[in-house]
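Example for tutorial group B:
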């Protein structure tokens, strides 16, 4: 990299690109640091009541009056107990080994910012890396270089592919960076797109598993909308062998499209909620009354 840095600027990029490089890296490292540092939304005795008010149980993915068997606290809808952290996390997405932290209600925006900025770093870095290799071809005289063909013995122009492989073979650090960009760029971009997709659809990666289970129940023809004694309806899984003995008024759910995702507000509203979530662990503001 010591060899590559002086090649920016070059005939393909201007000197001001250093500003973009530094800003992109700063945003990426900053969002990563905040995502690691911020409380992801741990549930404790002090905030469990407010946490339960953020999301109402839908009776399908989350049941009312649920209690965490480990924390022995009320389990807010959309929360999950993390075995790594040893606590329940509000709107938990997953436990990220790279951050050594859960991704939940309070730090999901920073995690998403980290992913998007990391994608930008990889894509932009690939572009800058390509210009460095192209510039090295010029400075090393490889653009007009001639080599002798082993079969004919004639001098022929050095191919583009051979010149690039020669540069990577000559500089191990450039070769390592090339391999990292080749692996990381598509992986990070695809994962970022996945996270943006599930945000737009109004669920987390933890809830995606739950929805897959619901889809399996529908496929197996065991998910029903059942009428309760008070006239209200609820979802119930009734196994096929138990269905003949179940005389409640019920309707088979035939398609996943019939099931409403209560937590889906629309793609734009989902993103706005993620970027500015309510903070359940912040005590409510006190109001002063005057007589």
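The residue assignment follows.
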């Amino acid at each position: 990299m010591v060899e590559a840095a002086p090649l920016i600027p070059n005939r393909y990029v201007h000197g001001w690109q250093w500003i973009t490089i530094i800003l992109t890296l700063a945003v990426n490292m900053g969002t990563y640091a905040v995502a690691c540092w911020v409380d992801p939304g741990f549930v404790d005795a002090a905030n469990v009541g407010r946490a339960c008010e953020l999301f109402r149980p839908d009776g399908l993915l989350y049941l009312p009056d649920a209690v965490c068997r480990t924390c022995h606290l009320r389990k807010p809808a959309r929360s999950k107990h993390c075995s790594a952290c040893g606590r329940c996390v509000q709107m938990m997405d997953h436990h990220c080994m790279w951050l050594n932290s859960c991704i939940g209600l309070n730090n999901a925006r920073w995690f998403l910012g980290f992913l998007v900025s990391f994608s930008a770093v990889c894509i932009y870095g690939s572009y800058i890396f390509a210009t460095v290799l192209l510039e090295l071809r010029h400075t090393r005289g490889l653009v007009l270089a001639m080599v002798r063909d082993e079969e004919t013995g004639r001098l022929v122009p050095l191919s583009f592919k051979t010149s690039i492989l020669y540069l990577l073979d000559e500089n191990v650090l450039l070769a390592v960076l090339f391999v990292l960009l080749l692996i990381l760029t598509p992986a990070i971009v695809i994962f970022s797109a996945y996270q943006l997709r599930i945000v737009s659809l109004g669920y987390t990666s933890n809830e995606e598993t739950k929805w897959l289970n619901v889809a399996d129940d529908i496929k197996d023809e065991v998910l029903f909308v059942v009428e309760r004694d008070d006239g209200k309806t609820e979802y119930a899984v009734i196994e096929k062998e138990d269905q003949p003995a179940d005389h409640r008024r019920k309707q088979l759910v035939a398609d996943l499209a019939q099931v409403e995702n209560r937590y889906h507000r629309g793609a734009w509203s989902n993103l706005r909620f993620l970027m500015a979530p309510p903070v359940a662990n912040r005590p409510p503001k006190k109001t002063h009354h005057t007589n």
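The mean pLDDT is 92. Compare this with the pattern of hydrophobic and polar residues in the output above.
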